[in-house]
Specification:
The protein is α/β, with parallel strands linked by helices. Helices cover about 45% and strands about 15% of the residues.
């Protein structure tokens, strides 16, 4: 999708544990440059230890800051940008980060641990109408009203402190489990709000488009309909204006074999476009 060239310059805008970066580096020659961006200090520390070579330049930041990051590295334009919008497994498996249903740690969900807003604040301090809007819109939760009322009533007596506590409470509201955990949509909504993910995506796509050379590529992997809709509309609008050529008329999804190997890929949708 990125059409990686040996001497090209590429951005992994969500480097995480560097899986995609390794694949890009394997196709690059000694003259290529890979810029890795992440908000998470732990991810960057891991990549410094495992990807450290002269072709890799790492930077802490948000992908909405691509222009400034490239400027600080004296890079004017790039040949491709990759976004993987999923939560890093490093964050999920580290229960101290407060992302997982199974975590007995304090609600957190910050990708950038230096920011002040966290999931505890959203659950325990947001007004009812704001909390319901977040769960309904960001989580696409059909029982947003019922869940919010129950959360507000409970938190008046005692706050929600841990992930596992909140997940169990929401499961109790549902009364039964379907294909996904009953708290999945609410946790998604909280994470999006804490990290301002949809605003970041809008800004990040625009920043990446500005940074890519004509003939360069953008590739985005989204995991839920809100993100995918933003990406689809971004590509569609710029294609209509004659600025992009959409490579994926429909998003590319994982094969059944890949889903068996990697269950988290089941909801991934990859879209790509080339700048004209």
């Amino acid at each position: 999708m990125l059409n990686v060239m040996e001497d090209g310059t590429y951005i992994d805008a969500t480097i995480g544990l560097g899986g995609h970066s390794r694949a890009i580096l394997s196709k690059m020659g000694g003259g290529g440059v890979l810029v890795g961006i992440d908000r998470d200090d732990n991810a960057l520390e891991y990549c410094r230890a495992h990807l450290g070579n002269g072709r890799v330049r790492l930077c802490k930041g948000s992908f909405s800051e691509i222009e400034g990051i490239l400027g600080s590295m004296s890079i004017k334009m790039v040949d491709g940008v990759l976004f993987d919008l999923g939560v890093s497994m490093l964050q999920i498996k580290d229960h101290t980060r407060g992302f997982s249903f199974l975590s007995a740690e304090r609600l957190d969900m910050r990708m950038n641990e230096s920011q002040s807003l966290n999931a505890w604040d959203v659950v325990n301090r947001y007004q009812e109408k704001d909390l319901q809007k977040i769960i309904k819109e960001y989580g696409e939760e059909p029982f947003a009203g019922k869940i919010t009322k129950a959360l507000i009533a409970r938190r008046k007596k005692t706050p929600f402190n841990t992930c596992i506590e909140l997940a169990a409470f929401i499961a109790g509201i549902y009364g039964k489990r379907g294909k996904i955990h009953p708290a999945t949509r609410t946790f998604q909504a909280l994470r999006i709000e804490v990290n301002k993910e949809l605003d970041e995506l809008d800004k990040g796509l625009a920043a990446a488009f500005s940074a890519v050379k004509p003939g360069g590529r953008m590739a985005v992997i989204a995991y839920h309909s809100l993100e995918d809709r933003i990406v689809k509309n971004f590509f569609r609008n710029r294609a209509a204006a004659g600025l992009l050529r959409v490579i994926t008329k429909k998003p590319t999804t994982a094969s059944p074999e890949e889903v068996l190997r990697n269950p988290s890929s089941r909801s991934a949708k990859l879209r790509g476009a080339e700048k004209i």
